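quick one before i forget lol
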Amino acid sequence: MAKRGVKKKEHERLDDKTLGLVVSLLEQEKPITKKEACERLNIRYDTRRLGNIIQEYKDKIEFAKRRRAANRGQPFTDLEIQEMVADYLNGESITKISESLFRSVGIVKKKLSELHLPERTRAPTYFKPDMIPEEAVSESFEVGELVWSARYNAVAEVVKLPSKLNAHQLFVFGKHNEFAYQPWWELGKLEIVKKHNIPVEKFIKTEKSPFNYRID
């Protein structure tokens, strides 16, 4: 039986794309040598370890295939929705989400649309933010409420309600990790967070040092 849990070294190319290519080259009519396979994966020439790596990859693909087949046509569970919404609002790609849920990209996109989540474009700009879905539009927010910031394309917390400038003071999470000001028409309600009992802790992530995390 092949050894499980092969440890990857930093310089090794053991991503699914490279492994898939190497496996296909090894199984073609005129296969590449195991030495060349190791070179393509940037690993030391070791046929036993190569075999373990390839078997683990094949097991992973087979497991995903079975899970996708089992999920086909089945409704999303509450846990899946929680995971999907949290990952999406935290900036995870739809491709990665579909892989973690063993669902097709198309099905995940459809469900996100049904949940009226804001659409993330690949290249939003500060001065031309994405449109907020009609179902999420509101002129009224509360202090401490989590909202979607279209300008920053991220989850934010309302820190202070607008006064004369008609702009809410926010703390924007994720890679921004900063305070900001935005009018209501650039903010979206995230009622789905409460509706599906998604832990707030999933949305207060930041990519910067905890020492610069937040000062109130």
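fyi The helical segments are 16-26, 34-41, 47-71, 78-89, 94-101, 105-114, 191-195.
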